[in-house]
Amino acid sequence: MHKILHTNLGRALFFTALGFGLFLASNRIDELRVYQGATLAMFVVAISSLILLTGYSGQVSLGHGAIMAIGAYAAALARIHWGLPVWLCFSAAVVVAAFAGAVLGTAAARLSGPYLAGTTLALAVGLPSIANQFHVLGGEQGLLFDIGQPPSWLGADFTSYKWYFWIGSSACLITLWWLQNILRSRYGRTWRAVRGNEVAAQLCGIHAGKSKTLAFSVSSGLAGLAGALLAMTISTVSPSAFPLSLSFTLLTGAVLSGITTLPGVIIGAVTLVATPEIADAISQRMANSESVTTNLPGLLVSALLILVVLFVPNGPVEQMRMFRVKARSHTKN
User: Fold this and answer.
1) 102-154 confidence digits (pLDDT tens)
2) How many angstroms from the chain centroid is the CA of residue 291?
3) What is the per-residue pLDDT across 142-156, written as a single tens digit (0 to 9) for each?
4) d(Cα 117, Cα 84) in Å, to the nearest integer?
5) Do 143 and 238 contact (CB within 8 A), yes or no?
6) In sequence order, what DSSP letters do the residues of 154-212 get, joined into one string?
């Protein structure tokens, strides 16, 4: 028990120190990098939610972008109609998205494989039509999500982008710290048992349906938080901000990270953030073609995804871990 507490305390201190370092770094980099940092934090949270769902509980979602939208709309409505503080808006995003995930997860517990993937895909496809049917959601124009100016005690030079970065980084670090703890708990062990062999897990007394529903709820809550972070960085919530392609982008990022490996999540997030910039640099060298600028990011991500599936199917981090394990076994022999 003492060892576990010591480990948790060590992780908490590490993430606190990392957060302080990121806060200092935000004052030394330009606005574009600060904005990219906020976007990176959003992708880390979103991809982590998908890794928990697919990598640890064995459920496939092709509609996580829609669940992000649910959280974003909840945060915006809480801000507009009740004027709640920012942290309560994000809390509302988590709670509402988790509730939606629980409803969807109850049905998901009875589905598997392509049936579950198809159900979540239908949600992502139907979301724009649903949003346009309700005036309170702002229709195609969407809703404004203004979190306000940063506190005055941060100084006059502390811009809105730095405020976004600070909030996004804090949410990201808290999410990763919390996820590491829960995945090492009995809940994480239960999810892995159900993913590995559902029949064997049920014979051991595990209620597979409740386990899957809980995993879907937790994953949806984190996706809702990511949706609120995305709405914060673009200051609006609309159907066009959460297209179907967002769900596939998150799934690509999860595969690049290593779908069963949480520590590799930063790799997928960095790839998704850096790809448009790399594509823009390439297009400028190719006569600044608009068609190249539009299509190249997707082409680069697709090519990278194919290479990862072929050569490191478990993700770079898991591949390195397996390599170290093999190296140790050879050394002992």
Assistant:
1) 988 887 667 666 777 788 888 888 887 777 778 888 888 889 999 888 888 87
2) 29
3) 899 998 888 888 777
4) 35
5) yes
6) G-TT--HHHHHHHHHHHHHHHHHHHHHHHHTSHHHHHHHHHHH-HHHHHHTT--HHHHH
Could you give the 3-state DSSP secondary structure of residue 287? coil
DSSP-derived 3-state class of residue 119: helix
Whether 134 contacts 69, CB under 8 Å? no
What tens digit of pLDDT does each residue of 70-89 get? 999 999 999 998 989 999 99
What are the residues facing 237 on neighbouring strands? 143
Beta bridge partner(s), residue 143: 237
Q: Which residues pair with 144 in a beta bridge?
A: 236
Cβ 229 vs Cβ 41: under 8 Å: yes
- Between vectors from CA 137 to CA 131 and to CA 142, what angle results, nearest 5°? 90
State the DSSP H helix or E strand holding residue 236, giving kind and residue range, or none if neither: strand 236-237
CA distances for 9 relative to 71, 262, 291, angstroms:
30, 19, 51
Q: Please tell me the pTM assigned to this model.
A: 0.89
Residue 238, SS3 per DSSP = coil
Q: Is the backbone of residue 285 left (phi > 0), alpha (psi -120 to 50) or beta?
A: alpha
Residue 184 CB neighbours (<10 A): 14
Nearest alpha-carbon partner for 78 in 96, 104, 98: 96
Spatial distance between the Cα atoms of 16 and 25, rounded to a whole number of angstroms: 14
Q: Cβ(278)–Cβ(265) under 8 Å?
A: no
Classified as helix, coil or strand, 147 is coil
The percent helix, strand, coil of the chain (3-state, each to 5) is: 80, 0, 20
Q: Are 51 and 254 in contact (CB under 8 A)?
A: yes
β-sheet bridge partners, residue 236 = 144
Strand 143-144 and strand 236-237: the pairing is antiparallel
Q: How far apart are CA 234 and CA 266, in angstroms?
A: 21
